[in-house]
What does this fold into?
Amino acid sequence: MKTTSGIKRRQFVQLGALAAGATLLPGRALSEETAAPTLPALPYAFAALEPHIDARTMEIHHGKHHAAYIAGLSAALTKAPELAKKSLVAVLAGLPEVADESVRTALRNHGGGHWNHSFFWKTLIPAADSGAPSAKLDAAITAAFGSMDAFKKSFGEAAAKRFGSGWAWLVMEKGKLKITSTPNQDNPLMKGIVPDTDLGDPLLGLDVWEHAYYLHYQNRRPDYISAWWNIVNWAEVSNRFEEANAGA
Ligand code: MN3
It folds into this structure.
């Protein structure tokens, strides 16, 4: 398979009418042009991730929460039309340069929310198709964390320890894998917003906002985290690893 750099690939998440692609799932084919970001379709049915994530949670998470980030991002872009010409990744990486604080905050929260959720939907797949990491990714995880089990334990701890709302991430930075965690809708692309030590190419991200699990798991976040491993799309994560390697 022909590989592309991580940067090139992430540029598929485009923001505005002048960008050729208004479809917003990373890597999705470009098909239509719109003036504002739109909600990407889920690549599976709401019920497809059961019993690990229930259909109602998916329906609300995608149709209400993700939609709200898109509405907020669209509203922010009307106040910063020059940014609508850029890729979302470029906007997120350039947040400190946005002078207007209310626009910057809206882009951080809603632009981050849109990117994170587009990434999250593609990170998931019905359990029967979850698969396994590629041999190269498996070897890199073992080299970095000792074993796959040790990696899952550390990642799960990062997700469980995140106080309040946020995300746990596996990222690649300068050829090295690391586990990070960010609050709210921040992510490892937000240079100048999150600590430099938390930056990198995201390979895997877990949403630990209560809206992601509360209907089914209530306060049992650790149960959600351990169930979530059953529906990780390892082929997608392995592709991201290849692309991050190619772009490193
Ligand atoms: Mn969410």
User: Anything to note?
Assistant: Residues 1-12, 16-35 have pLDDT under 50 and may be disordered. The CA atoms of residues 3 and 243 lie 6 Å apart.
